[in-house]
Amino acid sequence: MAPRLFLSSGDLVADRRYEFARDLQLKGDLPAAAELLEQAIELVPKFPSAWYTLGKIRLELGQREAAIGAFRAARDADPEDRHGAGLHLMQLGVEAVSAMPPGYVQTLFDQYAPRFEAALVGDLGYRGPALLFKAVLSVRASAKKPAFFKRAIDLGCGTGLAAAAFAQHVDRFIGIDLSPRMVDKSRATGLYAELEVDDMLKGISGKPDASAELILAADAMVYVADLAPVLAEAARVLVAGGVLAFTTETHDGEGVILGEGLRYAHSAAYVRASVDTAGLTLALLDDLSARNEDNIPAPGLVAVSVKP
Questions:
Q1: Reported pTM
Q2: What contacts 27, CB < 8 A, 6 or more positions away?
Q3: 140 with 268, same domain?
Q4: Structurally, how many domains does the chain consist of?
């Protein structure tokens, strides 16, 4: 479960009513919680945390239109949309699937950083880096090439789990992550020659042509709606014969959807088309789950492509 974000209203009484409402929500008294949140909003109309929580409660009560209104108000009250209210509007089908607000992603992972590995590996059985390592070894073996790389880029590096999996096979790692606190965790591992606080697309766009033999994105593409721009830049940055390996979640339909966990799921056909459009050759696409959701493996894909 994601850490709970609270953005103070700046009014002590409104904040207290919000906290009382949260207690009632956790106890299951949703109508009473909603009433207290409305009182807090009456005191401070631009109270994003109250609007967001009210939206979730209205949704749970089956009050769809009221939930939509509350989520829109939450986003209006916080232009960075750090709660991710806009993502719920996408889920409800009232807005098209589009990019996640950077403020939401950064805030989410800044909050997660202190317990990220315990939550992801311990609670969710995260195995993305191990799956990528095995897949890259398989592709290189099939091509009769060694699985050793001078320069690698770790997109969405988090706390450094992917770099740890590949540490004996990479001479020099660059890590890129939007969360400063995640980057601090990665820096503490000593696995990276360079670390940058940036989103994946901006980070890789700043890299020179043909400057990496390996690019990894472990459990990072689930926060990217449109894979094409990132894959195109990866293709530019890779040397000929270079490898791009990533995990993503998937679904049985077409295109890209936003799942219940507020992560994007890309269909296999969409991944194939995106890799092809980027000018890469898909060497492996396996149905493998990188993590669990509610103790059940989340449908996933492991993709490895090569630059011709």
A1: 0.94
A2: none
A3: yes
A4: 2
Q: Which residues of 2-11 are buried (b: 16+ CB within 10 A; e: fewer)?
A: eeebbbebee
Please say whether the beta carbons of 5 and 83 come within 8 A.
yes
**Residue 149: which H helix or E strand, with range?**
strand 149-155
- 73 and 184, same structural domain? no
**How far apart are alpha carbons 125 and 226 in whole angstroms?**
26
213-227 pLDDT per residue, tens: 999 999 999 999 999
How do residues 256-294 score in pLDDT, each as one tens digit? Answer: 999 989 999 999 999 999 999 999 999 999 999 999 998
Residue 26 lies inside a defined structural domain of this protein: yes
- Same domain membership, residue 233 and residue 186: yes
Examine the domain organization and report whether 231 and 277 are in the same domain: yes
What are the structure tokens assigned to 38, written together?
A: 């409305």
Q: Do 35 and 129 lie in a common domain? A: no
State the residue for tokens 């770790």. 154
CATH of the domain at 163: 3.40.50.150
**Distance (Å, rounded) from C-alpha 240 to C-alpha 212?**
10
Range of the domain at 266: 115-306
Q: Which residues contact 118 (CB under 8 A, 6 or more apart)?
A: none
Helices marked H in 1-83 — which ranges? 12-27, 30-43, 48-60, 64-77
Note whether 157 and 275 are same-domain residues.
Answer: yes
What secondary structure does DSSP assign to 207-269, as a single string? SPTT-EEEEEESS-GGG-S--HHHHHHHHHHEEEEEEEEEEEE--SSSSEEE-TTS-EEE-HH
Q: Which helix (H) or strand (E) holds 270?
A: helix 268-277
